[in-house]
């Protein structure tokens, strides 16, 4: 096998490849038990000081929504909706996401209701954007405010939605997190000129997301939650006959010595391969109960939980995939 770079220059040649089986124990020992961990890190945009050389009022930009006053820069036009924006066809359009204002007096349904409202508004705008041919050469920048509390939860959902939309329409959308500081507004032109799918605009400049490796000294042992566990205590895993549930059950038995495990799934013992699953986990040392339960049914889940007096942990892996592309979702 011959290897070459993008220009066609030789890089390496491989005459033969020999493989041999390696156990998980051998791999763990090779790294002293430390598996490399990675995390998302926000790093300064290279040459970030160039932002000060970009005009604060870029021509051909627009802001969409009911609060254009938040964007105090000269020359940026404001439009209430896409219908009003269509004729202008700006090169960049900013869509600020509202920050939910909740009080201690709001009930438990207030935040989910507000989240659905904001997601519906953003989804509707994204769908209209990709359907409008006049905006094909423009970019929609979805701006979330850097905030904690309920606002942070809403922002997380919005950012997830936009990242999914970017996967389908990579040249149409940009995700920008803004700290809300007036002094950081001047960095937006440089942030959007960087051709990054996601940026964080702060008072100290523009930051971009990169995958960084966690230093070994930071990989300190953390409590697992299973340190104080009585011999009668048990764990419940929903979606119990699925692949993820099987792996988790094996891990509980072999790594944490949790033996009393109830696996709950819709078919329970009638699931194909159920007998083999129980036998395999039992051989590992588990005391396995496989039961049929539809966790979406309040009556069934109540009966299940009532019958588990020593239940100490619930791991929820049950789920139903209801996938859809951007244009097929319902706002």
General description of the model:
It holds the Pfam family KR. Residues 235-330 form the Ketoreductase (KR) domain. Keywords: Multifunctional enzyme, Transferase. This protein is an alpha/beta fold. It folds into three domains: 2-35, no CATH class; 43-213, Rossmann fold, CATH 3.40.50.11460; 234-316, 3-Layer(aba) Sandwich (Rossmann fold), CATH 3.40.50. The protein has eight helices and 14 strands. It has helices spanning 24-30, 82-85, 110-131, 150-168, 188-193, 243-256, 274-283, 298-306; strands at residues 2-4, 10-13, 38-44, 61-64, 77-79, 92-96, 139-145, 173-178, 198-202, 205-213, 234-238, 260-265, 287-292, 311-316. Strand 1 and strand 2 form a beta hairpin.
What key phrases describe this protein's structure?
single chain, 331 residues, alpha/beta, Rossmann fold, 3 domains, eight-stranded mixed β-sheet, four-stranded parallel β-sheet, transferase, KR domain-containing protein
User: Distance between the terminal alpha carbons, to the nearest Å?
Assistant: 51 Å
Strand content: 15-25%
Our count of helices gives 8
Number of domains: 3
General form: globular
Number of separate strands: 14
Strand order of the largest sheet: 3-10-9-8-7-6-4-5
Mean pLDDT: 84
Which series of helices and strands comes N to C?
Answer: EEHEEEHEHEHEHEEEHEHEHE
Radius of gyration: 26 Å
Low-pLDDT runs: 48-56
Please name the CATH architecture of the largest domain: 3-Layer(aba) Sandwich
Keywords: Multifunctional enzyme, Transferase
Organism: Streptomyces mobaraensis
GO molecular function: fatty acid synthase activity
InterPro entries: NAD(P)-bd_dom_sf, PKS_KR, PKS_NRPS_Biosynth_Enz, SpnB-like_Rossmann
